[in-house]
Amino acid sequence: MSNAAQTRLELYRMMYLIRRAEEALMAEYHPADEMRCPMHFCVGQEAMPAALARVIRSNDILMSHYRSHGYYLAKGAPLDAMVAEFYGKRTGANLGIAGSMELASHAHNFYSGAIVGGSLYMPFGGAFAQKYRGGEDISVSVIGDGVFDEGITYEIFNLAALYRLPLLIICENNKYAAHTPVEKRQAVVQLSDRAQSFGIPFEKHDGYDAALLLQTLERIVPEIRAGGGPRCIEIATYRFCGHVGPGEDEGMGYRSAEEIKHWKLRDPVASLRRELAPAHLEALQQLETDIETDIRSAISAAKRADWPKLEEIIAFNTSGEYSGTVEFTGTRPAAFRAGQSEAMPGPF
Q1: CB atoms within 10 A of CB 294
Q2: Cβ(233)–Cβ(171) under 8 Å?
Q3: Does the N terminus or the C terminus of the chain have fewer Cβ atoms within 10 A?
Q4: Quick check: 230 and 293 in contact, CB under 8 A?
Q5: In 3-state terms, what secondary structure has residue 333?
Q6: Is 250:256 a contact under the CB 8 Å cutoff?
Q7: pTM of the model as a whole
Q8: Could you tell me which residues come within 8 angstroms of residue 91 by beta carbon, excluding any fewer than 6 positions away?
């Protein structure tokens, strides 16, 4: 098997893992009613996580928006811990207390969050620390087009460019911020103009072409590691399911069944499989069988696992230690200086 074919099989493996894990969770979500956290599924958006998995390193920081399951798996974090987290079990990636929207794996330097823009300004801090320490580690921020509605975005663009931080920004433009299309939120919908005005190189690509995305990352990421400063990639992509939950939600009036059907015709997982099948059908079938087994095992194990204990939850969320990088010097000022005049409004 050629190296190119092997690479495409690895891309498909990750894409199929993400797709089937999401579909299995969607099938379990409502009928059993055992996963009590809001779930934002990334069906249709598997190509970029699969490509990123090929270039990201263990020490790199990756933070995603709340549609994060694909990027969690792409960072090498374990499937069974992710599934158990959604069931609220103590074997979960975060002891079962974070759920889907704050899914994280500290051991794998992966984080996500529900704050719009949070997955940009937190990796910005990580990139600043990496720049300070030196080396080749980078931070990766995965955002949606809705982050361009936030003012802090432009402060980060400015500072990341000013300090030439090792920051890769991936914008998944899936056309909507929750239920609102970009045309109803932005007077100028060309997102690339915003980043470029701050001096950040910006590229736009087809988010359904995993091989193209991998080629792009293989070119850009070494430049960032070498001190070339931040880069931004916008990819055109689409979520097949609803904003939250497993439904397609075309009945809510913000997108039509025809629109969803149009994007599904370009299904990135199915397209790559069709490309590989003639020459590599046996390998495809074997990896699919293995993944199906892993997913069933993860769901079964999550259902059997114990709930976290209260003392474990408290210990997980508190710490009596300061960061090892913090140094306190001098004396701490008093919280209040006696003798100050009381602040009174007026007269007006």
Answers
A1: 16
A2: yes
A3: C
A4: no
A5: coil
A6: yes
A7: 0.89
A8: 80, 81, 84, 301, 302, 305, 306
